[in-house]
Amino acid sequence: MIEVKVDFARCDANGTCAALMPDVFQIADNGLLEQVATTVPADRDQDLDEVILCCPMGAISRA
Questions:
Q1: Which long-range contacts (CB under 8 A, 24 or more apart) does 50-54 make?
Q2: DSSP string covering 22-63
Q3: What SUPFAM superfamilies does this protein map onto (predicted)?
Q4: What is the biggest distance separating any 2 CA atoms in the chain, rounded to whole angstroms?
Q5: Closest by Cα among 63, 8, 9 to 35
Q6: Is 90 exceeded by the pLDDT of residue 38?
């Protein structure tokens, strides 16, 4: 498993991560990002890498 970390202080909740990995990230009704999973299976490492690269605020990383 790969641990996923979100720096919520940097996050602007633009929704890119939620669009790419909706089972891990969601935009709540209040417009803020929710991290619904803190780990992803190792075979999803490329999906996670895409989310990390696409986050415009650099708020997502591997822990």
A1: 50/20, 51/16, 51/17, 51/20, 51/21, 51/24, 51/25, 54/16, 54/17, 54/20
A2: TTTEEE-TTS-EEE--SEE-GGGHHHHHHHHHH-TT--EEE-
A3: 4Fe-4S ferredoxins
A4: 32
A5: 8
A6: yes
Single-letter amino acid, residue 17: C
Can you tell me which residue has the tokens 């890498």? 49
Whole-structure pTM value: 0.91
**What residue has token string 């997502």?**
60
Q: Which one-letter amino acid corresponds to residue 30?
A: N
How does the average pLDDT of the chain come out, rounded?
97
